[in-house]
Structure formats: C-alpha cells, structure tokens
Amino acid sequence: MDERDIRLLKAISDLGTGSPERLNEETDIPVSTIHYRLNNLQESGIIQNDLYDLDLEEVGLDVTVLVQLSTDYHGTHHDFEETILEVEGVSQAYFTMGQTDFVVIAHLPDRELVERLITDLERIDEVRSTNSTFVVSTLRHSTRAFESYELETLLSEFTAE
Amino acid sequence: MDERDIRLLKAISDLGTGSPERLNEETDIPVSTIHYRLNNLQESGIIQNDLYDLDLEEVGLDVTVLVQLSTDYHGTHHDFEETILEVEGVSQAYFTMGQTDFVVIAHLPDRELVERLITDLERIDEVRSTNSTFVVSTLRHSTRAFESYELETLLSEFTAE
DNA sequence: AATGAAATCGACCAGCA
DNA sequence: TGCTGGTCGATTTCATT
C-alpha cells in the first residue's frame, strides 16, 4: 500500500462511492490505474467485497480501543459532540445512559496514536475522565446490521401481517 | 419498506454486492424492479450512498445497546465465540482486556428484541453475567474507518519516507 | 508496474404495456 | 410493476512505456 492506494481508499470513504470516474475526479489518478489498483487491493484482501469494506487488520488499523468518557456535559453544547467526532480514529461514538456518559470506539494503527487519541479526548473541556479498554481480538466488526439477522426475523419485524 | 425491500437489503448485506444481476439471482426479483426499489430506498434515505450503507434509524434498527459480558471463558472453546455471534442483532463483538471479558454492540428494532438478546446471551453456558447500557443517541456509527482520519495522517502512518 | 485505446458488458433511465 | 431498448459508465484486453 503506497500513497496512491491510501488516496483511493480515503476518497472512497469520503465520497461514499466506488465509481472509477468519480474517484478519478477526486484523485486525478487515471481511470485505468484506478481499476488496476482496486483489483490489487481486492486480491490482497484489503478490500473485502464490492461494497469496499476494509479489512481493518490488513489495512493496518489493528488496534481497537473502547473509551468511556465521564463528562460535565448536559446536552446543551452541540459543539461538544462535534469536538469528539473531530478526534482522529473515532469510528463510533455513543451518548449513553448510566455511569459513563459517552462511549467511543476507535480503530488505530499503533500505540502511539492511542496515546494521541486519549490525549485529544482528555484535552476537551467537558471531559472529566476517561477509561480505556483494549480489544484483544475482534470477533465481528460489521457495519451491515442486517447480516446478523435471519431473514425470517427481519420479515416478521418489519412487515405488517 | 415491504417484504421485497427487506429481501433486497438482506441480500446486499449477505452477498456484499449491490450488483442488480447478482441480487436478481438471489432474490428472483426482476432486475428492473431491483433498480426501482433501490432508487426508492435511496431517495427515502434508508440507503445512504453508493456503498449501500444503511441508515439505522431509517431502517428501524434504532435501539442500540452495549452489553458487557463476564465469562468463564479462557480462550479454549472456539465454539463459544461462535455462539455469541449467532445471537441475532450482534453487530460487533470484542474480546477485551480488563474486568469484563467481552463487549457486544447490538442494533435492534425494539425493546422486545433487546429482551431476547439479553436472554440469548445469558443462556450461554460460559456467560456469568451481563451488564447492558442503552445508547441514548448515536453521534457516529461508521464502518468506514478512514473517514475519521485526515489524509495527511494516513499518508504519514502508512507510507515509508 | 502504469497507462491509454478499443471493445465488450452490465448498469441505468425512459417510455410503454 | 415489469418489460424493452437505448445510452452511458464500468470493466477487460491489449499494446505501449
């Protein structure tokens, strides 16, 4: 994976499309080269399917951490939520009921970036404390929520009889 | 969203492709109808981009819970992990360091299915106890890990100088 | 390994039954 | 809804660097 591959994958994430033409507009990489690159990325297992899901291990984002945030936040500052989402590596962020107020899940390339993540989060004014948990192994990391359901369950849930 | 839409979305998740031809093979819905349906689903916001990311709220999976599992598991039974993944609704599952052994994230259609999720999890032999946290609001639910990074960070992390 | 050109194939849209 | 035909983009192949 070199600079061009990174640019491609980043463009796919940002644009939400795998269209070679659109990717060419964004990256100025020639269309035929985009094909060539994407093929290689698929064959090497970095890209998993037609929907361009990334293999986090293969792509090098193999450190996953769960961070619980205790905050002085009371639902007033919309800016605060924005600030959390600006921290690099934050893939998911939930405002929760119970003891801790936020839970953040981040996928990072190495320990160094973990340090930076925690630092960035603790630097936020409203954040009182953080509590990090390292993930030892990922059993499933799915963005396709329907995957985990049986068709029958979906049908009975989402259609009127 | 009727039965056909559900079948389509489920097929997209399972097959990992949005190819109308492939979807036709799987679902027997005519190709032109697949176009028609997918267009409608995009316009109504259920599908968010060319990569067929679902809007969980729109699709009706608007209840998110984080479940921490304490277990008697010591890395021996591969079957145990399988069992966790068979529970409907489990989108992500991590084996973690620290107090609790597993963390599961599930996206569900209603409280009833939450009940069933917890029941299913607690029914597993190795599971000693569960601790659930409801998500009040989702700030970000991203499956595209590169989204949260600046291009510059990715380049400096993943390319040798 | 990367690119461009040419040819083919599938995706998509419009209009009609 | 579903079908048909035409247009356009996506993809493959091949020749060139």
UniProtKB/TrEMBL annotation, chains A, B:
SUPFAM superfamilies: Dimeric alpha+beta barrel, Winged helix' DNA-binding domain. One of its GO terms (molecular function) is sequence-specific DNA binding. Residues 1-62 form the HTH asnC-type domain. Pfam families: AsnC_trans_reg, HTH_24. InterPro entries: AsnC-type_HTH_dom (IPR000485), Dimeric_a/b-barrel (IPR011008), Tscrpt_reg_AsnC-like (IPR019888), Tscrpt_reg_AsnC/Lrp_C (IPR019887), WH-like_DNA-bd_sf (IPR036388), WH_DNA-bd_sf (IPR036390). PROSITE patterns: HTH_ASNC_2. Keywords: DNA-binding, Transcription, Transcription regulation. One of its GO terms (biological process) is response to amino acid. SMART domains: HTH_ASNC. GO terms for cellular component: cytosol. It comes from the Archaea. This is Transcriptional regulator. It comes from Halobellus salinus.
